[in-house]
């Protein structure tokens, strides 16, 4: 039986099995994963994090850290352990002159967008406003603005961190530089980040939205995307997807339920420039089923598809990086697109060129600077009984493509069942240094409910 209250002052809320709201509070974004922690500590400030961590450490409990709770593998929770929940730690402070944003660890991406947009600024992030900023940043952060401004972690200036021994430090290029290096891509392995300081960029109304074609044209669209994007202006963010048009009012009735391929655009600049940048991707292709591009506030573009993938759906996803997209690879995509198991399942290809590749591969823990594309395959459905079908489709699809990949996977697209070798391959040449940093900041591997990097053995 866990003892409460904590030895150190704690002003948040504690929830254990049998307490009201326990089942709701233990729920995860991925409904496929069901975990029953012994205690959930809902933190309101850094002092609460220190108190909860001390309790878990002294009790010898497994400790999971939850930010936005968006992790596909459910690694923001654990069975029979302590969940340190940061979701109540909110707040964004924007400095428009310095073009920075100080963001608390519990913020979602949409909350950051809301705060920065009024100043005509944005922090490069993902493609859904419901994503937690903490996990996104610590694992990488690819999205609409990556080609122009880099990954989310490339725009991190400093982070406040609670270490495994309870100390509080600030990590930056000048202070705790090894820790700062490891935080930028190493996930939650090195401490609990309670706030982030980001560089922000001039972004306000963009030209963007989706362009849908029938799945019969997927080969032509994907080849055009592959061939034209490298020469496109970096102001153009453009990713490719294979999916099904949902049966909802935001889509024309005649398109609902159709298998489609899609280009989703975001051009940070004037409309006339955007149309010119997109012209090579339209020219010579069949007329699209839907062209919903146009001027749109950046936060609205970020939130456009949130209602289609609400929390609680059942997910199984797989990811890989690719340096090239050969015709053989495109044929594999087309073969599996014909076998999509459910209306929610999808595949996305995100570009990671431009500003992402101008950062040296050893400058941060995120090492895949040579790749050009980041792929995610997501089997998704509302019903648990379809779990086997969505999992098998994602695994088979990935297995056929993986031999053509660069061998590593994006840490934010790894499930919790992929093994230590897969994690090591993800970090490549940076893995040994990460293990050495881990040995300094978390030698007992207290933070291990993640895509774990074990500490190096020291003598």
Write the layout of secondary structure elements.
Elements: E1 13-15, H1 22-26, E2 39-42, H2 46-59, E3 63-66, E4 82-85, E5 92-95, E6 100-104, H3 109-117, E7 121-122, H4 133-139, H5 146-149, E8 156-162, E9 168-172, H6 177-183, E10 192-199, E11 201-202, E12 205-214, H7 218-228, E13 236-244, E14 259-267, H8 271-282, E15 290-291, E16 294-297, H9 298-303, E17 314-322, H10 327-337, E18 346-351, E19 373-381, H11 387-401, H12 420-427, H13 431-441
Parallel strand pairs: 2-4, 3-4
Antiparallel strand pairs: 1-2, 5-6, 6-10, 7-11, 8-9, 8-10, 12-14, 12-15, 12-16, 13-14, 13-18, 17-19, 18-19
Helix pairs in contact: 7-10, 10-11
Task: Please explain how this structure is put together.
The structure is a single chain. With 459 residues, the chain is of the alpha+beta class. Helix content is 26%, strand content 23%. The protein contains 13 helices and 19 strands. The chain has helices at 22-26, 46-59, 109-117, 133-139, 146-149, 177-183, 218-228, 271-282, 298-303, 327-337, 387-401, 420-427, 431-441, and strands at 13-15, 39-42, 63-66, 82-85, 92-95, 100-104, 121-122, 156-162, 168-172, 192-199, 201-202, 205-214, 236-244, 259-267, 290-291, 294-297, 314-322, 346-351, 373-381. Strands 12, 13, 14, 15, 16, 17, 18 and 19 form an eight-stranded antiparallel beta sheet that branches. The protein has a five-stranded antiparallel beta sheet with strand order 5-6-10-8-9. Strands 1-2-4-3 form a four-stranded mixed beta sheet. A hairpin with a 4-residue loop joins strand 5 (92-95) and strand 6 (100-104). Helix 7 (218-228) runs antiparallel to helix 10 and helix 10 runs antiparallel to helix 11. It starts with 12 loop residues before the first strand and ends in an 18-residue tail after the last helix. The model has no long low-confidence stretch (mean pLDDT 95).
